From TrEMBL:
Keywords: Membrane, Transmembrane, Transmembrane helix. Residues 262-281, 286-307 are annotated as: Disordered. It comes from the Bacteria. This is DUF4097 domain-containing protein. Residues 57-236 form the DUF4097 domain. InterPro entries: Toastrack_DUF4097. The lineage of its organism: Bacteria, Bacillati, Bacillota, Bacilli, Lactobacillales. It comes from Weissella minor. Residues 265-281 have a biased composition (Basic and acidic residues).
Length: 324
């Protein structure tokens, strides 16, 4: 029996059917996901918001799992948590003994195709550059958080314009981005992840992992700090620290000039560099990786990956609850 012609006709009809479906729902908030073994399924996407009094929260505990979560300072006097629900699946949010606990879902659809209106997602004023962040935690203005704890696997965390006394981040293969963050201590543990620091002011930091990439600009440290990795790269501009102790089996470049045209340093690298007060130094051990540290501007931006975005816009808070 010749099945070739029926299969071709069936394929054409399927394509036409999908095209008609997309056209029919072009003005609706219509979302599709593909689940292995079940094919295409519709997904109801909705935005939700919860608010909490400032006095009720002193600590923040976030489990990003494999999702992306953003924490940023807002303009209001309340904590807010914005979540996106996919057919009812969304981050869990609760406050216990002064700690705001936010846990990302484990079974969120991995691939979602949207047609027509996307009003079920965050309004553009909330989330103009971070369309993949399904959870946004908005910290009240001028609030100092006592402890921030972040756990996860392949997910990511963005901390922006917050004051946190102690920040502890544990990610297996995910990433962290800190912008305009002030605090006492930062502790980061990872395996194959990466961390970007931009305008970060700390007393000390402790970073360790396997194949890590740590990059950024404008990092200020006051006390002894350490970064230890078996491989990877530490690439940082405008670093202020009492001293430096840089070691790597690969190349170490300290205050070296970089030629962006050739994409190379103008000077040969070493395996070690020490400067300043060694009792309060920033000690970096990069194993077989490489180190580039400048006390001034001189290194090109080395952070252009994945779900992070180099150009951030200011956010405008809206105090009214969103309608579902």
């Amino acid at each position: 029996m010749n099945l070739k012609k029926p299969l071709i006709i069936g394929g054409i009809l399927s394509v036409v059917g999908i095209g008609m479906m997309v056209t029919t729902y072009q003005d609706a908030n219509f979302n599709l996901t593909y689940q292995k073994g079940r094919g295409l399924e519709t997904v109801d996407v909705r935005q939700n918001q919860q608010s909490f009094d400032t006095k009720d929260i002193k600590n923040l505990d976030v489990d990003v799992k494999n999702s992306e979560v953003q924490v940023r300072q807002g303009d209001s006097d309340k904590w807010k948590v914005e979540t996106v629900a996919y057919s009812g699946v969304q981050s869990s949010v609760n406050v216990t003994d002064g700690t705001l606990k936010v846990t990302a879902p484990t079974d969120k659809p991995k691939l979602i195709m949207s047609t027509g209106s996307t009003s079920g997602h965050f309004d553009d004023s909330y989330n103009s550059d971070l369309n993949n962040a399904d959870t946004v935690i908005i910290v009240p203005k001028d609030v100092n958080i006592e402890n921030v704890r972040v756990d996860g696997r392949d997910g990511g965390i963005i901390l922006e314009r917050i004051n946190a006394k102690h920040t502890n981040i544990n990610l297996a293969d995910g990433g962290a981005r800190l912008e305009h963050v002030n605090g006492d201590t930062l502790k980061y543990r990872g395996q194959d992840g990466r961390m970007h620091l931009e305008n970060v002011d700390l007393k000390s930091m402790d970073v360790s992992g396997d194949n890590l990439v740590v990059s950024g600009t404008n990092l200020k440290l006051q006390e002894a700090s350490q970064v230890k990795m078996s491989d990877g790269k530490f690439w940082m501009d405008r670093v202020q620290a009492p001293g430096f102790d840089l070691q790597a089996d690969g190349n170490v470049h300290f205050n070296a000039k970089y030629d962006e045209d050739t994409d190379e340093f103008t000077e040969k690298g070493t395996h070690e560099a020490k400067r300043g007060d060694q009792d309060k130094a920033l000690k970096i051990e990069a194993g077989s990786g490489k180190i580039g540290v400048n006390e001034h501007k001189g290194l090109p931006n080395d952070y252009n990956d994945g779900f992070y975005y180099e150009n951030y816009e200011e956010y405008d808070d809206e105090d009214d609850d969103d309608e579902n």
